[in-house]
Design brief:
The complex is a heterodimer.
Chain A (H helix, E strand, L loop, with lengths): L2 H15 L6 H15 L4 H22 L8 H41 L2 H7 L4 H38 L5 H9 L6 H25 L5 H30 L1
Helix pairs in contact in A: 2-6, 3-4, 3-6, 4-6, 4-7, 4-8, 4-9, 6-7, 6-8, 8-9
Chain B lengths: L1 E10 L2 E11 L4 E5 L6 H9 L6 E6 L2 E2 L5 H8 L2 E4 L11 H12 L4 H14 L15 H13 L5 E5 L7 H18 L2 E6 L2 H7 L2 E6 L2 E6 L10 H7 L3 H10 L1
Parallel strand pairs in B: 3-8, 3-9, 6-7, 7-8
Antiparallel strand pairs in B: 1-2, 1-4, 4-5, 9-10
Classes of the chains: A mainly alpha, B alpha/beta.
């Protein structure tokens, strides 16, 4: 199947999610369950990754800014802007593409090869909508919360690393965090996150839903889902930066 | 009644089903038999609406499934119960939740009514004590019985079973076959079973269709199947020593 056919099939799949939907009550319960699976279960990994990324950014920025003409508060200013513009939304979403994306693809792939999706279809249900739509809605709701937390922890990680190593004083760090702040960076990060959440869940679901074969193909679908999601996130990242900044 | 007319299906130019026609009457357990790779499961999937045939009709009491609109297809599907080869139980739900699932999705019954109906179906397949267990905690035979309970929970008019006794010991296989036949008789539903198990063929095959390389080569009942003169069916039947001996003793 060539790339163009696959992209076309992906858009047909997205259309399928919104036709012949089931009762709203069914989705609400599913969305809550998915929100727990996607959100709560990802808090630990997101916390670890974002805290260390903030810490490393702070230490490396301090290491490179050795000029006496550049004030120390610039270190935390850079940490803040890098966190808001790129590290929190993009890097965290790439981590989530690995965790959530592979989980969605392998889960749906296993349901496909064990005929569970066929069982839903013969009941007269829209299996794609029933299984995938709650995942997308849950991710679109929960990812921004995770990214907000990631942004906070990244800046806090920078503060801890910077002050403990003596690279920057606590006063300078707080001053730099507040200096030349552009408020639009926050909604920009959240808009990016919503787009990434949609791409990661829908691409991974598409890969898993159309798995054919056995356990080996489920593994391949999972790997492909992560690879495709990461590429889509990076392309969307560039396009959104061009469009919105 | 289900009637199939001239079903033809091919995959990448390879013909899997070539003009299969037949009728399946209510109250009868109809069997589609044949060796591995002869197109039995593909035919079943064409009948239940999971694989679209290249040509042909699948008529449910005169309503053509494949030329029907989305509402017709949905209505027909809601009259079906399907037992898949591996049971196809939802891993994240308990046995009771699996059986109750079609009621949750397709009816407006109260929770008490749904539980009562699901428990009744579990009792029917003698699994009332396994209601709170997860699919991973029950045996293959029990999974099949849960699959049957889920298939009948909506009072279907049509029951389809894809190799219901594959991977089961002979005793459990016979029990599953008897259960399918009892349910068919009790509710007067149209039942189609895909199998290559000779015990099932001789035990419950009220109507039998034999497929070979995508063609229907023989049709009959379990009473006259051993008298066949079709070489491919003879080869299929007498690959078992037991059946060979049966034929010799009959002579």
């Amino acid at each position: 199947m060539n790339l163009l056919t696959r992209v076309g099939r992906y858009f047909i799949f997205i259309g399928l999610l919104f036709t012949r939907r089931e009762k709203i009550g069914v989705y609400i319960r599913q969305i809550l369950e998915e929100a727990v699976a996607i959100g709560i279960d990802s808090i630990f990994i997101v916390s670890i990754v974002s805290t260390f990324i903030g810490a490393v950014t702070c230490v490396q920025t301090a290491y490179n800014l050795v000029s006496p003409f550049i004030p120390d508060y610039v270190i935390s200013l850079i940490v803040r802007d890098m966190t808001l513009l790129e590290l929190a939304p993009t890097i965290t979403c790439i981590v989530l593409a690995g965790k959530v994306g592979s989980n969605i693809a392998s889960g749906l792939g296993t349901m496909r090869i064990s005929e569970q999706i066929d069982a839903l279809e013969v009941m007269g249900l829209n299996s794609a909508s029933y299984l995938v739509l709650p995942k997308i809605i849950a991710a679109v709701l929960v990812f921004p919360m995770l990214i907000t937390m990631a942004g906070f922890l990244s800046i806090w990680g920078g503060y801890v690393a910077g002050t403990l190593t003596g690279a920057i004083t606590p006063e300078d760090y707080v001053y730099g965090i507040r200096a030349d702040f552009i408020p639009f960076n926050v909604p920009f990060a959240l808009i990016k996150t919503v787009v990434f959440a949609f791409l990661i869940t829908s691409i991974s679901a598409f890969r898993g839903y159309y798995t054919e074969g056995g356990a080996l193909e489920v593994g391949k679908a999972s790997t492909t889902a992560v690879t495709n999601s990461c590429i889509a996130v990076l392309v969307a990242d560039y396009l959104l930066a061009q469009l919105l900044l | 009644m289900i009637e199939i007319k001239d079903i033809r299906k091919e995959f990448n130019g390879r013909v899997v089903l070539d003009g299969i026609s037949g009728k399946f009457e209510p109250g009868n357990t109809s069997l589609i038999i044949g060796g591995s790779g002869t197109g039995k499961s593909v035919l079943l999937k064409c009948i239940v609406g999971l694989i679209k045939p290249e040509s042909g009709q699948v008529l449910y009491n005169g309503r053509d499934f494949w030329s029907g609109d989305a509402d017709t297809k949905r209505d027909i599907r809601r009259e079906m119960g399907v037992l898949f080869q591996g049971g196809a139980l939802f891993d994240s739900k308990t046995v009771l939740e699996n059986v109750k699932f079609p009621l949750d999705m397709l009816t407006d019954q109260s929770e008490e009514e749904k539980i009562e109906r699901a428990q009744f179906c579990l009792k029917r397949v003698e699994l009332e004590n396994a209601a709170n267990r997860m699919p991973s905690e029950i045996s293959g035979g029990m999974k099949k019985r849960v699959g049957i309970a889920r298939a009948i929970v909506m009072n279907p008019k049509y029951l389809f079973c894809d190799e219901p006794n594959s991977g089961l010991d002979p005793l459990t296989s016979v029990k599953i076959d008897e259960l399918i036949q009892q349910i068919t008789d009790e509710y007067q539903i149209t039942t189609i079973v895909i199998t290559h198990d000779m015990n099932s063929v001789l035990g419950i095959g009220e109507d039998i269709m034999f497929l070979h390389k995508g063609l229907k080569l023989w049709e009959g009942t379990n009473e006259n199947i051993l008298d066949t003169t079709v070489p491919e069916l003879e080869e299929f039947l007498y690959s078992s020593q037991l059946i060979r001996r049966m034929k010799q003793s009959k002579k």
